Amino acid sequence: MDSLWATVDQLIHDLGAIRAFIDEAHTVPEASSSPQVVSVRGAMDEATTAITRILDGHGDDRRVVEEAWQAIARAQDAVRAARVLVVRARAAGETAAAQKVQARAQSTRARGQADLLHEQRARLRQPRWVPGAAPAPPDDTPDG
Questions:
Q1: Are 53 and 64 in contact (CB under 8 A)?
Q2: Measured torsion, CA atoms of residues 18, 20, 21, 27, in degrees rounded to the nearest 10
Q3: CB contact at 8 A, 45 and 68
Q4: Would you say 47 and 74 are in contact if contact means Cβ atoms under 8 Å apart?
Q5: 57-88, pLDDT tens digit by residue?
Q6: SS (H, E, C) the chain
C-alpha cells in the first residue's frame, strides 16, 4: 500500500508541474489560447481524471495506475510541444517591447535634431551686423 501512495504522490507531483506550465502559458497572451496549450489543458484533465480513479478506490487495479501514468505521459508530451510556442511568443513579446523603446528613443532624437535645425535656420535668416561694415541705416519711423 505504501508503494501505491508513493506512486500517487509522484503522479500528483507530475500533474502539478503540468499545471504550473499552464499557469506560465497564461502569462503570455499570444500563446495562452493556442491549440498547443489547449491540448495541454485537455491532457491535464485526462490525467486528473485518471488519478482521481485511483483515489476513488481503484488503486489496487494495476490497469488504472498504468492509465494514470500514460495520461501523465501524454500531458508531458503536450507540454513539450507547447513550451516551444510559449518560449517563442515570450521572446517575440520581449523583442517587440525592446523595439518600442528603441523607436521612442529614435523619435526623441529626431525631434531634438529637428528643433536644432529649426533654430539654426532661424539664425541664418536673421540679418547680422558684420564688424567693419557700415552701420544700419536709421529707422525713419516717427518712433525711431
A1: yes
A2: 150
A3: no
A4: yes
A5: 876 788 999 999 999 999 999 999 999 988 88
A6: CHHHHHHHHHHHHHHHHHHHHHHHHHCCHHHHCCHHHHHHHHHHHHHHHHHHHHHHHHCCCHHHHHHHHHHHHHHHHHHHHHHHHHHHHHHHHHHHHHHHHHHHHHHHHHHHHHHHHHHHHHHHHCCCCCCCCCCCCCCCCCCC
Other Cβ atoms within 10 Å of 58 Cβ, number:
15
Q: Which residue has the cell 493556442?
A: 34
User: How is residue 94 written as a grid cell?
Assistant: 520581449
Check if the beta carbon of residue 34 is closer than 8 Å to that of residue 85. yes
